[in-house]
Every structure is written in C-alpha cells, then in structure tokens.
Amino acid sequence: xxxxxxxxxxxxxxxxxxxxxxxxxxxxxxxxxxxxxxxxxxxxxxxxxxxxxxxxxxxxxxxxxxxxxxxxxxxxxxxxxxxxxxxxxxxxxxxxxxxxxxxxxxxxxxxxxxxxxxxxxxxxxxxxxxxxxxxxxxxxxxxxxxxxxxxxxxxxxxxxxxxxxxxxxxxxxxxxxxxxxxxxxxxxxxxxxxxxxxxxxxxxxxxxxxxxxxxxxxxxxxxxxxxxxxxxxxxxxxxxxxxxxxxxx
Length: 249
Description:
By secondary structure, the chain is an alpha/beta fold. Helix content is about 35%, strand content about 20%. The protein has helices at about 5-10, 10-15, 20-25, 40-50, 85-95, 110-115, 130-140, 170-175, 185-190, 195-210; strands spanning about 30-35, 55-60, 100-105, 120-125, 145-150, 155-160, 220-225, 230-235.
C-alpha cells in the first residue's frame, strides 16, 4: 500500500476489524455491480470511495431527467449518457485509483455468466425480477456471494445470498421464478428518493463486510424497511431443498 493509500483509507485502517490487511483485501477485490440507477448510485460511490480495486458496472440504460430525483451519481451533464459510463466517471472523481469497467449491454444470462465467473462478489441493483433471477443463477453457478436490494414507493428490502455456504438460500428460494408477480416499476408506482440511498448504502456495507470478513452478514435474513414509519423488520430465510436453482448443490 502506498503512502497516499495509507492516508486515503486511514479511517478504515484504524478499525481493528479491518486494518491494513482488510483494506488490502478491498484493494485487490473484483466486484460486479448490475444496475447504475437509484440503488447503484450510492453503492458505486461507497464501494468506489472505500477502495474496491476493480468494479464492473453493467447497465444498458441512459440517464434521463426523471432519474435525477434519486440517482445521485448522475447530474445534468449526464443526461443522454449511458448510466454505466456516468457512474464510472463519478467514481473516478472520488477515487481515480479504482479501475471501473462500464458495460453498456443488457444483463442477460450469457453476459452475467461470463462476468460473474471472474468476480469476487456480485451486487444486484436492478429493478426487475427477470434480471434478478438471471443474476441469481449466475451467482449460484459460480458460487459467488450476492448482495440484493430492492425499493418501490416507500418500501425497501435487502439481503445476502451466499452459495458458498450450504445452508444459505438463494434468491429463487425466497422469490421462486414460477411465482413472479406483476412488476411494480418506479415509472408508474413512484419511489421516495432517500429510500434508494438508505437501501443502497446497506448493500454497500454488506459488500464491504463480506469482502473483509467482518461482522455478521445478512445471509439468511431479509431486512425490510417501511420508509413512512422508518421501521425496520427482519425475516429469517430458509433454503428450499426443492429450489429449481440451488436445490441440487
């Protein structure tokens, strides 16, 4: 670690649970983040500022004026630009040492399978069930920990699915693909702007904890937030032995 890095990350290094060894693990980590919008913005800024060495950002969408109410990594100059490229520029403005690879393709099974294989951890910041299930399949296939978040209206949720542990459920154990409900989109349902920041920040914290092996992750737990009452609730999650995705592992 260089002198500049020792200074930049000094507040992490002062934490006994992280220290120099933990910070070096972050610097050598490769994270795959899918979605560079409301959740992806705070996730990207925090894992980038924390010194994740290599971040791949996948998002085929472009910045729109309606995004700026909550997607804090973008600004007026970003309108019309690919969100992945805009987020890469925002991270570089905070921490130019981080290597950010923007991918402006749709996150389908083939792409996710290729990218998840080389990642240490995957963060799902998407807003639709089909992509979430594709991400989950790739993570189970390659045994990569997955930090998942979702927000709509005043409600948010976050969990960790870690196929490296035999008792951890996968996303499909909790939300089976055969039981997909009608999609609730921000464009039609609305979303309370600060809520994506709260949930995205929790996702970033869980990712850093997993990479540093610090504390107790949200594996096997679904943390839910009612933003109107600002009340957190937790639900225990069990693995489904008959799950179509992870049942045979």
